[in-house]
Structures are given as structure tokens and as C-alpha cells.
UniProtKB/TrEMBL annotation:
InterPro entries: AA/rel_permease1, APC_superfamily. This is APC family permease. The chain crosses the membrane at residues 12-40, 46-65, 95-119, 139-157, 169-188, 208-230, 242-261, 295-318, 339-361, 367-394, 406-426, 446-465. Pfam families: AA_permease_2 (PF13520). It is found in: Cell membrane. Its main location: membrane. It comes from Streptomyces coffeae. Keywords: Cell membrane, Membrane, Transmembrane, Transmembrane helix. It is a multi-pass membrane protein.
């Protein structure tokens, strides 16, 4: 008698969802290395850009929560978009998300390595076995980061609950340091708070506004990781609650930190320090050893972010493997740990290859800027498609009164169209900003080519899944849940359940 295959364990609660969403969003890392980039794009209007970016992100979070309640699936957008808009855009949604995270993992590994080496240098450890531990060396920081990636992957394989508990403690330390130094800067800063910081019309151009908004949306990227563990939570609603709590916490931290940074630093200082903004703030406000606390918090944030990126990516690929749009290797669940172990290790391996290829870009700062800008467009695409899918899925609410129509259709549609529109405008600005291609993050054609390559590869993989794998997903457009069952759509009481895409 054959045994049933091992399943993922339902052991996670709201706190676990908050931990993985907040760690994946990585507020400390976003603030530490992103405020300078945002200032370079929109000047001192960073606070209002973060606030404006939160509005469509909140609408998209609502869309995720509603879709997850109707159809809980670790494939999230891949499953929901496939059911509502069709298998091709559904597969593309899953693919660009996964590829985006893998690119992010590759680049963040280098950032993590850089932070660790900065901390090592502060401890007067400058070389090992004749190798100079230079935090500005792309090669050395990448190798160190990949060692960390391997370690957090092992922990993720052994169990997501242990990983989220570690992340929760790291978050407590990070936020305590962040709030202390930003609070200190807010009190003692020499630059007066100005209402112009909250005036979007002070931004010099539409292109700068679009790029700044996409960058600001990227600050919030990661909260949806909470929905990737929906098949491992004790209650379906835990995913949404964890995601919303993390999202609002991020908003508060981002606005608080952006104002604090600008209280303490001039625009020139913000831009000049770039990825070292938070550590520069620490050195400006305190003496050693206290000045090293921001660097330690940044190191913890980077490590937690790497780990929390591995976890949802493996689960998204698990959902695709169940539908045979990807290989069956992604569906292997560890019999003892109850995690998609093979997929988790493969994600690490692929990210390692990408990280090594990224050495072709010599400067670490250039790597960061290229990753942030290109992935921002990808994030706008898959968030936008998922929100549109929610509006289509619940379009029957248009006949259930104004309030339900606005919540179920209007908010998701407006949020999705806003992100798709801004992303399209930014893509157009990239194309018209230059007349030649150059492997440089300042080159518009290069920046536009990265998301285009991701989308093109997704279409090729979708064609392979449809015509070679003959995946049933491309017949019904619907993914499977953990028990390989189709769940009915959310409908008014008494309505017949739909089992196929509209």
C-alpha cells in the first residue's frame, strides 16, 4: 500500500506572518540604502513619495486578502491571475515574481556581505588568509554574502517556524536601533521640517515622479510574502492579518525615518552617502561603540531579508510544480521538516549563479541601483495584474450596492491600473532617455531591457509548460491547492460556484 506524499505543516500564526512579511520588506535595509537613492530621484520629497506609494499598495494588499480568503494558495498571484485573467498572464505573474526575487537575492547577498565586512573592519579584522576584506569589493562581498545565503537556506529547509521566530527577534533589535537613532535625529537635527517635503508638485519632472513612485513602491515590496505561507498557517486569515500589520508598520517606519534623515542631513549629504546613509547617521550622532549599532541592525536586516526571500519563492515554485507548469522537483516536501526542501536549495543555487554573473557590473552601488530600478518595474507589473484579477474575480459585486462595488472592484482596479500606468510611463521614459545601449545602470535602454528580458523569458517558459509539459493549468487557468482540490470562488449566498475561469 503506497503512502501519501508528505505535506507542509499548518503550524504558523499571525506573529509568524508579521515576521516573514516585515523581514521580507526589510525596512532597516530599505531605509539604510534606499533613502539616498530616493533623494537622488525626487530630492527632499521622499516623505510624500512614500506616502503616495502606500495608497495603491494598500489597495493591492486588500486585493490579496480578498483573493486569499476566496482561494488560499501558496501560489498567490500566479493562481489568482490565472483563474481570472487567463493562464498566460497568470504564469507570467508567478514567473516575474520568482525571477525578481532571485535577482534580489543575488544582489542582496552582495549587500549582506558588504555590511558584514564593514562590521569586520570595525572589529579590526581586515584580511583572512591573505584576502583583503574590502566591503567595496564586489567579488569579496558576493562570496561572503553567498556563504550567508547558504546558512539561511539550511535554516529554511529545517522549518519555517524556527526561521520566523529568529526573524522576529532580529526585527525587535533592528527597530529598537532604528527608532532610537531616527528619534534622536528628529530631536537634534539642524534642518527644519518643511511642508514642501510633503508637496509632490515640487518634484522637477514627471519622469522623476514616476521613477520615485516606483522606487517608493519597491520600499514596500515583500509584505505579500505573508501570503506564500497561507497553506502553513493555522487559519487562512492569519496571512492577511500578518501582511496588513507589517504593511502599516512599514509605513510608519518609512515616514518617520525619511523625515528624521532630512532633519539631520542635507540633500547633498543624503545623495553623497547613498547606501551608507544609516551608518553615516549613526557615526554623526554617536561615538563608538554606539555608532556601530546601525551597522549591526543593518546586518541583521539583510540576513533576515535574504532568508525571508528564499521561503516564499520556494513555495511559489511549489504551487507551479503542482500544476506541472514547472518541474516536479519543486513539489518535493521534506518528510521530517515539512518544507519544500529541494525547491529551497534550488532557489539558493540559482541565486548563487545570478550573483556570480552580476560580477560583470564592477561597482556594488551600480548593482544596487540597477536591481532596485529594474525590479521596481517587475513589482509594478505583478502587483498590478493581481489587483486587476481581483476586480475581475469579484465583478459580480457591481450589482450588490455601491459600497461592495467600490471595495471589491473599484479599489483593486484603481490600485492595479495606477501601478501599471506608472510602470508604463517609467518604461517609456527609459526608452526615450538615450539613443544607444550601454551596460550601465544610468543607461535607459539597459534599465528597460532587464524587465523586458524577464517578461520574455516568462513567455518562453509558459509556452514550454503549455506545449511540452502539457500542463492542465493552461486548459483551466486554475491552480491547485495543497490537496489538489479546486476551491469555489467567493460569491453571494445561493450563487452557483464557478470552477473555471470567466
Amino acid at each position: 500500500m503506497s503512502q501519501s506524499p508528505p505535506e507542509m505543516r499548518r503550524s504558523l500564526g499571525v506573529i509568524d506572518g508579521v515576521a516573514i512579511a516585515a523581514s521580507s520588506t526589510a525596512a532597516t535595509t530599505s531605509i539604510a540604502i534606499g533613502m539616498g537613492t530616493l533623494a537622488l530621484t525626487v530630492g527632499l520629497q521622499g516623505p510624500i513619495m512614500l506616502l503616495l506609494a502606500f495608497i495603491p499598495v494598500l489597495g493591492i494588499a486588500y486585493s490579496y486578502a480578498r483573493l486569499n480568503k476566496s482561494e488560499p494558495n501558496c501560489g498567490s498571484g500566479y493562481t489568482w491571475v490565472g483563474a481570472s485573467l487567463g493562464p498566460w498572464p497568470g504564469f507570467l505573474t508567478g514567473w516575474v515574481n520568482i525571477v525578481g526575487v532571485i535577482i534580489f537575492l543575488a544582489y542582496t547577498s552582495a549587500v549582506t556581505g558588504s555590511v558584514i565586512l564593514q562590521f569586520a573592519n570595525k572589529a579590526h579584522l581586515n584580511s583572512v588568509a591573505g584576502i583583503t576584506l574590502d566591503p567595496n569589493s564586489t567579488a569579496v562581498t558576493t562570496v561572503v554574502g553567498l556563504v550567508i545565503l547558504t546558512g539561511v537556506t539550511v535554516m529554511a529547509v529545517k522549518g519555517v517556524r524556527g526561521a520566523t521566530r529568529l526573524q522576529a527577534w532580529l526585527l525587535v533589535f533592528e527597530y529598537a536601533v532604528l527608532l532610537f537613532f531616527c528619534g534622536w535625529a528628529l530631536i537634534t537635527g539642524e534642518h527644519s521640517i518643511s511642508l514642501s517635503w510633503f508637496n509632490p508638485f515640487a518634484i522637477e519632472s514627471g519622469e522623476a515622479f514616476a521613477q520615485g513612485l516606483v522606487l517608493a513602491v519597491f520600499f514596500f515590496w515583500g509584505w505579500d510574502a505573508a501570503f506564500s505561507i497561507t497553506e502553513e498557517t493555522k487559519e487562512v486569515g492569519n496571512s492577511a492579518r500578518g501582511g496588513f500589520i507589517a504593511l502599516f508598520a512599514m509605513l510608519g517606519l518609512f515616514i518617520f525615518a525619511s523625515v528624521a534623515f532630512q532633519r539631520e542631513m542635507s540633500l547633498t549629504e543624503l545623495i553623497a552617502n547613498g547606501p551608507q546613509g544609516f551608518t553615516y547617521l549613526g557615526a554623526k550622532l554617536a561615538d563608538e561603540p554606539w555608532a556601530s549599532l546601525p551597522l549591526l541592525a543593518l546586518m541583521f536586516s539583510a540576513v533576515a531579508s535574504v532568508q525571508s526571500s528564499v521561503i516564499p519563492t520556494a513555495r511559489g515554485l511549489l504551487a507551479m510544480g503542482r500544476d506541472r507548469t514547472m518541474g516536479q522537483v519543486w513539489t518535493r516536501v521534506h518528510p521530517r521538516h515539512g518544507t519544500p526542501a529541494a525547491g529551497t536549495v534550488l532557489v539558493m543555487a540559482i541565486a548563487t549563479v545570478v550573483a556570480l554573473l552580476a560580477l560583470a557590473i564592477p561597482k556594488l552601488n551600480d548593482m544596487i541601483l540597477a536591481a532596485v530600478n529594474s525590479i521596481g518595474l517587475v513589482v509594478a507589473l505583478y502587483y498590478g495584474l493581481t489587483a486587476i484579477a481581483c476586480a475581475v474575480r469579484f465583478r459580480s459585486a457591481l450589482h450588490q450596492g455601491a459600497r461592495e462595488a467600490v471595495l471589491a472592484v473599484g479599489v483593486p482596479a484603481a490600485s492595479g491600473l495606477a501601478l501599471l500606468g506608472i510602470g508604463s510611463y517609467l518604461g517609456y521614459s527609459y526608452l526615450t532617455s538615450t539613443d544607444h545601449f550601454e551596460l550601465n545602470p544610468d543607461n535607459g535602454w539597459f534599465m528597460f531591457s532587464l524587465p523586458c528580458a524577464i517578461v520574455a523569458s516568462g513567455l518562453v517558459m509558459a509556452a514550454w509548460a503549455k506545449y511540452r509539459r502539457r500542463s492542465p493549468y493552461f486548459v483551466t487557468g486554475r491552480g491547485t491547492d495543497g490537496d489538489a482540490l479546486l476551491l469555489p470562488m467567493d460569491q453571494p449566498a445561493g450563487a452557483a460556484s464557478e470552477t473555471t475561469a470567466p
